[in-house]
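Before a colleague's protein record goes any further, I have to sign it off. Alongside the sequence sits a line of tokens, each denoting a local backbone shape. I want your independent view on whether this chain really folds as the tokens say. Where you disagree with what is written, explain briefly why. This is what I was given:
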Amino acid sequence: MPELKGWKELPIGGLIVEPGNAKQYKTGTWRVLRPVYQPENCIHCMQCWLYCPDQAIVVEIVDGKPKMRGYNYYYCKGCGLCANVCPKSTDPKTKQPAPEEKRAIVMRPETDFAEE
């Protein structure tokens, strides 16, 4: 039976040793859900941009202020963090999920979209 290695001898695994390398790879081709931006409901608080782990939120500076303009779907993995942190996803009176027509970001199944 081979001798087992101790934790100090094991190779590094499960760690991101080069953070910030996602821009080198187009990773959005395998998502199951796609965030859909509804600009008429957006208050441009930029919470989506702040929480997006893949920097997939497209931002434009207008009159010195950041404005959300949509997604770079090449990098979006469809995790839904943007929709979860968006204040427009919750009805402020009831604290329940807001109706889809009032949300700024709605998650849709990727199968709803034809090849683009």
About this structure: The CA atoms of residues 7 and 33 lie 38 Å apart. Residues 32-112 form a domain with the Alpha-Beta Plaits fold (CATH 3.30.70.20). Helices lie at 47-51, 81-85.
